[in-house]
Design goal:
This protein is mainly alpha-helical. The protein has 18 helices and 6 strands. Helix content is about 60%, strand content about 5%. Strands 1-2 form a two-stranded antiparallel ribbon. It binds arginine.
Length: about 450
Amino acid sequence: MASLWGGRFEKEMDSLVKDFNASIFFDQRMFEEDIDGSVAHVTMLGKQGIVTEEEADQIIKGLEKIREKIRSGEIVFTVDDEDIHMGIESRLIEEIGDVGKKLHTARSRNDQCQVDARLYLKKEIRNILNRLIYLEEVILDKAEKYADSLTVGFTHIQHAQPITIGFVFMAYFQMFKRDIQRLQDTYDRMNLNPLGACALAGTTLNTDRHLTSELLGFAGPTENAMDSVSDRDYSLEFLSDASISMMHLSRWAEEFVWWNSSEFSYIAIDDSYCTGSSIMPQKKNPDMAELLRGKVGRVYGDLMQLLTVMKGTPLAYNKDFQEDKESLFDAIDTWKASIQIFANMLEKTEFRVDEIQKQFAKGFLNATDIAEHFAKQGIPFREAHSIVGRMVKKCEINGCDFEDLTEEELQEIDSRVTKDSLGDISMKACVDARMSFGGTAPAEVRRQIKVGREWLESVDL
Ligand code: ARG
């Protein structure tokens, strides 16, 4: 089959070259957007008198027929189609005859592939935002449920301070909130229409790029034709948004793996989100959490691939840029599925609050709280820190807790310290008192949940 661009060629493409050159096998997933772009383009050509209104109508009807045939599976693309743009255009010409040849006036595949990719990515960003919002709702509900439930706060994977489970949830809430905001920023910045930039320098025909922008739902046309066909920074922004968010998911997934281990036993992941072993009958493995952790590697790879493709490429379009799609699609698919799986797993996960309590005896979780009691009594914090440090040492030698130190032992450590001066150092009292803005006290976490809910409801898609 002769290609639509075959006029100046005397030989057919080598069959290896055909395969190597084709993007149809991956870019056909943008067929809806390609047709939407063409409909808007030819509507504009008709309004501007570049083609007649009747010709525009005929072409639009033809395009809609092609859309139906692709949807129903009647059209199956092959390597001869080369890419989705020519695949659709050649079917259109087959369908409606010579008038179809007018569609490609005042545009190029260089702007066409960009309008397709931007429309496609905008649609998928909205899907991803919806999923992130669902994840945030699950987090808020769980944070509320566990607002009073105590757990161990770690630094360096060492017992640090008592906190609430709700507080942990709200920490992740903030990360995904920023992921949502980052994605919204990316969306707003990329929401400009490259259609009509043509090959690189615009056209001599009297086109109206503002009209096609309006018809396609873009905020306006891109400013510079050459830039429009030759940068992929919007995809790179998306890929870095995806990488950051996948990194957040992987951190929580990692915690899930730990919490689910027999050493921790903090959580019970629902059976439907675990798998078994083919040899060890007792096993219930947290495979989804592990896979989520692993999937991040793909998305980082996608980002690095496109950064590398773009590096050092001169203006304007280069065929290298065709390599922008598979990594973008892979990141979209991976991120989307990962958010959904994680949100569902989270929803089905219960915390074993009684098991968690058993850990409170280890690690002197309330040490900082005692030092703060002393500071409130006028002892400079540096001295208070050192006193509690010596108390810890004593407890370690005795094999006991702060509460077990005798009056004499305390006095020996520092004359200002008595049993009474320790105050209420139960885990609950320590947590309840951490009322500083952003702190872990249940009342403060409830404030964070309230603000979080208000923000989530205000998110505009
Ligand atoms: N399939 C190409 C891509 O995705 C479309 C643009 C091709 N343009 C060209 N002049 N060869 O980048």
